[in-house]
Amino acid sequence: MVNDTLKTRLVSHLEELIRERDPYIATYGHYYVQRYIQSQLEPWGTVVPMAFGNRGREHYNLCLSLPGRQALAPVVIGAHYDAVPGCPGADDNATGVAVLLELARLFSAQPPRRPVRLVAFDLEEYGLVGSRAYVQTLQGEPVHLMLSLEMLGYCASQSSPSQTYPVAGMDYIYPKTGDFIALIGNWQTIPMLWRFNRAFSGAGVGCACLPMVNYGRPLPATRRSDHAPFWDEGYNAIMVTDTADLRNPHYHRATDTLDTLNLDFLTRVCLGLGQGISQL
């Protein structure tokens, strides 16, 4: 069974977030989404706009910190809110932001064991600029884990093979049908990958885990989101993804719209993430 209340809230977020929002071309849509995210996080605490510069303009990551039950190193949960020109960005990355907003609601009501920092990153599509700027503000501060929520709502279970991979032969190890969520982490996160695998299984979502060595450089496709700057600075980080263009034919296209998403799948992913993060 799918949590219908959670699904309804996720759809409500998506309806506000899905619009052209390139920060330099679709400036109104970008500003609208930025303000929407802030308005949805503010009921749960103080939202800190973290400014950084790019191309002579000021941009903002939006950060909400929530306490945990114990004074431990925090978990950083991030999702980028910008989109490429000409694309309404339903899967990329309105799905990630919608789940981020619902995790804020969950953890404000039910604090996890560790403190969490929920961050909406800007300028991911321009080379992970926002997340690189955020990592620099940490200045080596301990972080237990970073989770990058990167495209969470496309499920291609209707046909097989519907999943491709960046390297030949991976389909002998991983599923040929694109109906799972992928977890890609540096090798130090292997115990956490398996914990999340169990959490997603409990939420009714198939899961595939890929641990990487050497900051993901042997397989560049594994570095295509906001976790990569954390890897580069020595932090444990996992990308949570439906694998983007390796599955979704609407990636970076005008057809990346709400009607292409599997909302039951997205809801289950949100539930699995909530359960997994609570157990860290």
Outline of the structure:
The chain is α/β, with parallel strands linked by helices and 280 residues long.
Characterization of this structure:
The protein has 280 residues and is an alpha/beta fold. The protein has a single domain (4-278), classed as Zn peptidases (Aminopeptidase, 3-Layer(aba) Sandwich), CATH 3.40.630.10. It contains seven helices and eight strands, in the order ααβββαβαββαβαβα. Strands 1-2-4-3-5-8-6-7 form an eight-stranded mixed sheet, sandwiched between helices. Strand 6, helix 5 and strand 7 form a beta-alpha-beta unit. The radius of gyration is 17 Å and the shape is globular.
Proportion in helices: 25-40%
At the fold tier of CATH, the topology name is Aminopeptidase
CATH superfamily: Zn peptidases
**CATH architectural group:** 3-Layer(aba) Sandwich
* Residue runs with pLDDT of under 50 for 5 or more positions: none
Structurally, the number of domains stands at 1
Radius of gyration: 17 Å
Q: What strand order characterises the main sheet?
A: 1-2-4-3-5-8-6-7
CATH class: Alpha Beta
Class derived from helix and strand content = alpha/beta
- How far apart lie the N and C ends? 25 Å
Described by the principal axes of the CA atoms, the overall outline is globular
Strand content: 15-25%
Mean pLDDT: 97
Helix tally equals 7
Strand count, sense and closure of the main sheet? 8 strands, mixed
User: What is the H/E string?
Assistant: HHEEEHEHEEHEHEH
How many extended strands?
8
